[in-house]
Amino acid sequence: MANKIIHTIVDQIKKCKCFSLIIDFTPDITHIDQLSFIVRYKYEGIPIKRFIQFIPSCGHKANDMKKAVLDRLESLDININDCRDQAYDTANNMSGHYNGLQAKIKELNPLAVYRPCAAHSLNLVGTHAVRCSNEAAQFFPRSESKGLKRLLGTRWSSRDDACVSLNDSWDEILKTLSLLENYHNEPAETRKEVSGLRKKFEKFETTFMAIF
User: By its UniProt entry, which InterPro entries does this protein fall under (predicted)?
Assistant: First the structure.
């Protein structure tokens, strides 16, 4: 099934001739970085974005990423010379004018224009804007330390820490559970589990045990 889908995507790219590359690193559940390989193209007048695959542990150096990208394109029988756009984040190994991935691709295909990821750029704007405000700069470090605590088997005091953080966030937790319970894009099994948690939270026994 997966091979058939990839084959269809490749056929569409070849028919429209030109395509864009979108590359980003995404950590998996074990915190190992994987290279997300995505293509974008216009097929029958409609812009289409397709995920191709995760490329595991290819390395963070521009030459390593270049090799991973070119190897994958070659395996799909897609010509890098048909690439007209590159979209990556603004990290130096991606965006570097001389030694970044975009520069390496441009050496092979000068028509592959590099466009920085708009979402990443906007995030940097927000980060730097917040640093200009003393109130915000003092607020965010404090807010990062807040949250529910885990129970640690080697520390009996962790149970008290967990209860304190639970009580401090009680109303927010209930609101969040209610929102998730009514969020129809969540799987039915998840909403069922959330509903059970919300009902548990609303019981007097749960409130009593959390406080005392």
Answer: RNaseH-like_sf
| Helix 157-168 vs helix 204-211: crossing angle, to nearest 10 | 120
Question: What is the per-residue pLDDT for 107?
Answer: 93
Pull the structure tokens for residue 20. 């864009």
Q: Is 0.70 surpassed by the pTM of this model? A: no
d(CA 89, CA 23): 8
Query: Are the C-beta atoms of 106 and 114 separated by less than 8 Å?
Result: yes
* Total length of the chain: 212
Tokens (6 digits) for 33: 């970085």
Task: Give the model confidence (pLDDT) of 29-62 as tens digits.
Answer: 666 778 889 999 998 889 999 999 888 777 788 8
Q: DSSP string of 79-132?
A: -GGGEEEEEE-S-HHHH-TTTSHHHHHHHH-TT-EEEE-HHHHHHHHHHHHHHT
> What sign results for the dihedral spanned by CA atoms 42, 101, 91, 147?
positive
User: Which residues on neighbouring strands pair with residue 19, listed in sequence order?
Assistant: 83
Q: What's residue 152's pLDDT? A: 55
**Number of continuous H segments (helices) and E segments (strands) in the chain:** 10, 5
Q: How far is residue 38's CA from residue 51's CA, in Å, rounded to a whole number? A: 4
Residue 127 structure tokens: 């980060």
Cross-strand bridge partners of residue 85:
20, 113
